[in-house]
Known about the structure:
Layout: H1 2-16, E1 24-27, E2 34-38, E3 57-62, H2 63-67, H3 71-86, H4 89-102, H5 107-120
Parallel strand pairs: 1-3
Antiparallel strand pairs: 2-3
Amino acid sequence: TLWRHRRVTRRARRALSGLPGRRVVVLPDDTPYAYALPGGPGGPGGPGGSGGSDGSGRIVVTTALLAGLRPAERRALFAHERAHLAARHHRHLLAVHLAARANPFLRPLRSAVLYTAERWA
């Protein structure tokens, strides 16, 4: 689980590395999605960094999602993703995934933490 998490995060950062050091990255995609990627270029989450331990990171959103949202909804989306970064939800989610992998009886806790992190943000 930890290996997969690091691999996916590293690939995502590498895919965005050629883009300027913006906090928001808009990808041309027909599929609507958005996510918060901890860390960022030149910051603690950059190459060799700590993965956004200071709440830094990037918000990645697609053109399809932005096209379907009104301005107020866009502001809410960006506030939501910034809240994930500021509260370091990626760390909580990784910890609960590792715990559930180590002890299958904790799998319901994983779902509860995922739900709670989304509601909190």
